[in-house]
Amino acid sequence: MRNILVTGGAGFIGSNLTLELQSRHPSAQIVVVDDFRSGDFQNLRGFRGGVVAADVSRFDWTGHFGDRAFDAIFHLASITDTTVHDQFLQVHDNVEGFRRVLQFAASHQTPVVYASSAATYGIGSGIQREDQPPAPANVYAFSKVQLDNLAREQAGRRPDWRIVGLRYFNVYGPRETHKKAAASMIYQLYLQMKAGRRPRVFRSGEQKRDFVYVRDVLELTIAAAGAARSGVFNCGSGHASSFNDVIAALNGALGTRLEAEYIDNPYGHFYQPHTEADMTRAGSELGFTPRWSPTEGIADYVRHLEGR
């Protein structure tokens, strides 16, 4: 790939993707479009490409880029904070941003890989498969369902155009620290344990999540640009780990023996007890198999955080 565009390229996943693309395609011209609301310039240290500071939902794409053709567009820009309850803001910025990206990409039928979310499955427990009906429990998830609907409608009208959505599960890894309270639970628990405090989790600690290391996310996201057809794919580890498992892995990586402190769960039946991505479709159609187990991923992440 010689010309690549990444929206949200200063964010957590976006910056990791941008720098990985730069490493794999050193002669490529890479452009990042980001408004830096949920990104951080420090995530792009070492980036040699161009940066456009703009809100993708209000950006004049054709006015800025003209007829420039890209080999791939990775659309990761989004309001990712699920605690933002302004419904107009969430839906407008997430949906209209994607609509404008598709309008710009349509003339050249540029392959588009976009960030959907496991949140589209709702709070039901168990293994999540792509053919399940959406059940968004908040406006963020609702906005991501609309992205999937838009992609399906556009791909249906242009069968040769590849528009691929990835439903990211619980991603963790380097370049998420700027998210602070919105960063992964793995990072939050690391901070507590690094400070010598007992890690706090909801009572019993047996609630399970599909924690996927960002390095695996990059592999699948890049592979998606070469998909044979449009569609939506899960992006997870394919494994459900309890919070007790995470604490054990962090103890092992840090060389500590801190026991969990269990607290009451204030969310009751609104709290999701189990997420787990069925990765069959990603394996059969994109040739992707998750490499990093939670234990190995957490150990590698801690080495990064510790500067080893």
Structure in words:
This protein has 308 residues and is an alpha/beta fold. It folds into two domains: 3-170 and 213-238 and 279-286, NAD(P)-binding Rossmann-like Domain (Rossmann fold, 3-Layer(aba) Sandwich), CATH 3.40.50; 173-210 and 239-277 and 292-305, UDP-galactose 4-epimerase, domain 1. Helix content is 35%, strand content 18%. The protein is built from nine helices and 15 strands. It has a seven-stranded parallel β-sheet with strand order 3-2-1-4-5-7-12, with helices on both faces. Strands 6-15 form a two-stranded parallel sheet. A two-stranded parallel sheet has the order 8-11. Strand 1 (3-7), helix 1 (12-24) and strand 2 (29-34) form a beta-alpha-beta unit. Helix 7 (243-254) packs across helix 9.
The fraction of residues in strands falls at: 15-25%
| Helical coverage, percent range | 25-40%
Main beta-sheet strand count, sense and barrel state: 7 strands, parallel
According to DSSP, the number of beta strands is 15
Structural class: alpha/beta
In CATH terms, what is the architecture of the largest domain? 3-Layer(aba) Sandwich
**Oligomeric composition of the shown chains:** single chain
Number of domain units: 2
Give the CATH topology of the largest domain.
Rossmann fold
Termini distance?
Answer: 33 Å
How would you describe the shape?
globular
Order of helices and strands: EHEEHEHEEHEEHEEEHEEHEEHH
- Which CATH class of the largest domain is shown? Alpha Beta
